[in-house]
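Onboarding guide, step 5: your first structure request.
Type a short instruction followed by the sequence, for example:

Predict the 3D structure of this protein.
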Amino acid sequence: MSAIGVRSKVHYQHKFANTYLWGSYSPINGDSFVWGINGVDTTIFEHYLEEFSKQNPRDCKIIVIDNAGFHACQNIEIPDNIYLLRIPPYTPELNPCEQVWQYIKQRFKNKKFESIDTLKDWLHKMVQNMDSHLIKSIVGNHHYNDNLDKIVL
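The system replies with structure tokens like these:
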């Protein structure tokens, strides 16, 4: 941050490379499941659901999804312990993952990484160091927490 009217000087890198984090975060107990993978498509989404279902397999998991194309669920197998809850368009505040991604982005801006692998290492450390208290503080949302008793699957 800098004073109004003053431009901050930061190192920058004019290069484009990307990586993807897939994640599920609980506003109830702060549990998380994160996958670092290179891509987004329906097949990857199906594999993500399969792997996530294996974490605490006796728990019923409600996953909030938006209208991203890879969230199309017509031709994929959804594990029995997972329920997909589609939120209305343009409501990222209802998606716990979006809150976490914003938290990460705030710590990410103005950082320069030597390589995509350095970036991936930084992201891995960032998500690994997020404990349940921090996750609940980020994703705790009155839309969910105030209505837990009304959720019917």
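Each response can be followed by summary notes, for example: The CA atoms of residues 22 and 35 lie 5 Å apart.
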